[in-house]
Write a structure and sequence with these properties.
Length: 115
């Protein structure tokens, strides 16, 4: 995994907020305008735009402005670094648990324990 320093931190910080995760879930269905995205949230537009800017700064979404309408889209492959890191952690812990299980099995089957 080739990440610039701090990139993974920025991605997890962006994903650490429920509003931003809800925005990403909505965008998984397709691009949406800021007005459409902000409708379900009870917050001022400047506060909502701060969430969109944070997602854009993390590289998870891209925005395009046409006149007064700003459209937000998911960036393809933007979740790859997060998924790769999680896959590495899962493989590491699965390996540790497999070795622990094998060790426990040897203790259970050890003939010295039999009377």
């Amino acid at each position: 995994m080739n990440l610039s320093p701090g990139q993974l931190d920025i991605l997890f910080q962006a994903l650490g907020d429920p509003t931003r995760r809800a925005i990403l879930e909505r965008l998984a269905r397709g691009p949406a305008t800021v007005t459409e995205l902000s409708a379900p949230f009870d917050m001022a537009l400047p506060s909502f735009l701060a969430h969109v800017r944070r997602l854009e700064a993390s590289g998870l979404v891209a925005t395009a402005k046409d006149g007064r309408v700003r459209t937000v889209t998911l960036v393809p492959g933007a979740f790859t670094p997060v998924r790769s890191w999680l896959d590495e952690q899962r493989a590491l812990w699965e390996g540790r648990l497999d070795r622990l299980d094998a060790y426990v099995q040897t203790l259970i089957q050890d003939p010295r324990d039999e009377p």
